[in-house]
Amino acid sequence: MAPTRRSSTCPKLRVISPDGGARPPAGTRDDRPVVLCVIGARSHAVRVVPLIEALERRRVFRPLVVRVGRHDESELLDPVLEDLGLDTRGTFLRTTSGPPGSRTAAVLATFEQVVLDHDPALVVVSGDSDATLATALAAAKLNVPVVQLEGGLRSWDWGTPEELNRVVTDRLADTLVTQSADADDNLIREGVARDRIVCAGNTLIDSLRRCEQKVRRRGAWCALGLAAGEYVLVALHRAVNLDDEERLRAVVGGVLVLSERVPVVMPLRPRTLARLEASGELEFLEAAGVVCPGPLGYLDFVSLEIGAGSIATDNGAVQEEASALGVPCFTLRATTERAVTLTHGTNLLLGDDPGDLASVEIPAAPPAPCAIPLWDGHAALRLADALVANYALLDDTHR
Known about the structure:
- By secondary structure, this protein is of the alpha/beta class.
- The protein folds into two domains: 14-202 and 376-391, 3-Layer(aba) Sandwich (Rossmann fold), CATH 3.40.50.2000; 208-359, Rossmann fold.
- Helices cover 44% and strands 13% of the residues.
- It has 16 helices and 13 strands.
- Helix 4 runs parallel beside helix 5 (161-172) and helix 7 (203-218) crosses helix 13 (298-307).
- The longest helix has 19 residues, at 100-118.
- The chain is globular, with a radius of gyration of 21 Å.
- The N and C termini lie close together (6 Å).
């Protein structure tokens, strides 16, 4: 029996619930079981969109999008969703800033009501954010199966909140979608039953392959006065590198030294821009000739990745995209959960010292895409087939 529906009393979220997702023909009712797809960041959207399209082709489930984030994050995400061709209508859980525990609790309380309202057959999550953990926990407590699109990723760095979120979310998930064999091995070692693991590949690469030729022709580097293959794209997004003023100053120092050798483009998000302006560091970057555009849509950012001679990043999705494109990637971290990008891709760990950004090189050889197994642009099709096979008959029994 379904749990009694109740209103959320959490004051830190505002739920906006227009009728989102695919609509049935006029005058008909869409009775397909609902799949709630949670999007809290750019990388979540890029992973989820191919799955939504694949599920719609099969007409078994009705995917609905649930967006989670602050107002400013929503404004950043809208252009990405538009580039991906996703209807931006849907449930939006608007969060506020605060300690991680408070944010997690707020999302947990309010997403629970969303689950009760929609009574989904499945909840699809991805990533390692607090919102990922909270939405997975809310669904699991209501006995709704959770599908984690990034199952089995491990950095083995327990000092980071992301690792805690990954492990706990994997424990909560009913189905763990893995991108490569090493992720399977991680889960098996942790005692996860094999029938909970679906090694479908990487749905993020599905989005990349779909738009690759278009963004090559787009040539976003030209509008910034850059030459293809002759600049370094610096894409740093982790809070540990940007939120602490001393750390941010060290990052800027490394970028400045790097810019003495090669042209550098460093896209800035609003919060990062505000910190750079407040500290005066932005003036140093601009004086050194570092190109600092504002937030970019998905297509423009991928275009800059394709045109880059090298990429310096701390972002997991960028590590994957760089490896799939064959662009050398230098990661400002001591560990990475994307181990396959080290063993089969183009990724190299720089370590934690921002000064090592100055050592990033542009190789003489042109990029060569890496042949990572199952990163072939068809992961979402394989996954949709698995979800239909495993859950299509659960609509009347999962409650």
